[in-house]
Design brief:
Layout lengths: L17 E5 L2 E6 L2 E5 L2 H7 L4 E3 L9 E2 L10 E4 L5 E5 L2 E4 L3 H7 L7 E3 L1 H4 L3 E2 L4
Parallel strand pairs: 1-4, 3-5, 6-9, 8-10
Antiparallel strand pairs: 1-2, 2-3, 6-7, 7-8
């Protein structure tokens, strides 16, 4: 007696603002676009409550957009030069006044080390 093969249904209707993990990486789904997430440093800054396991084929109808940057409120430090930035309104705001860290209730040790290309995911904003 032969078993009938199960039909695999590939989900392509994902909820809004969710992360999907496929064989090639993580993607933030926003409407009809998918934003690649470069690495776990960026992913962890968001603390997404749900990550859906899927396949690249399921995301083929989504338009690829620019990569997702760090979450607003994240303090990052550029490993190439040591500059420290606060991500605010998706802009990188360089910390140039040490009192700015106190004002934010942050310490230098709170900063996440980031590669220069990760820092550059954000456009430059006003210094703090």
């Amino acid at each position: 007696m032969f078993r009938k093969a199960r039909k695999t249904i590939l989900r392509t209707d994902f909820p809004q603002d969710v992360v999907v993990h496929t064989e090639t990486g993580y993607y933030f789904i926003n409407g009809t676009t998918k934003k690649p997430i470069k690495n776990t440093r960026v992913l962890d800054s968001w603390s997404f409550p749900l990550i859906i396991e899927s396949q690249d084929l399921a995301l083929s109808k989504f338009t690829k957009a620019s990569p997702l940057g760090f979450r607003n409120g994240t303090l990052i430090r550029d490993i190439s030069g040591g500059a420290v930035y606060l991500i605010s309104k998706q802009l990188r705001r360089k910390i140039v006044d040490p009192d700015a860290l106190d004002m934010l209730g942050k310490k230098l040790s709170d900063a996440i080390w980031a590669a220069h290309d990760e820092v550059m995911l954000h456009q430059e904003g006003n210094d703090l």
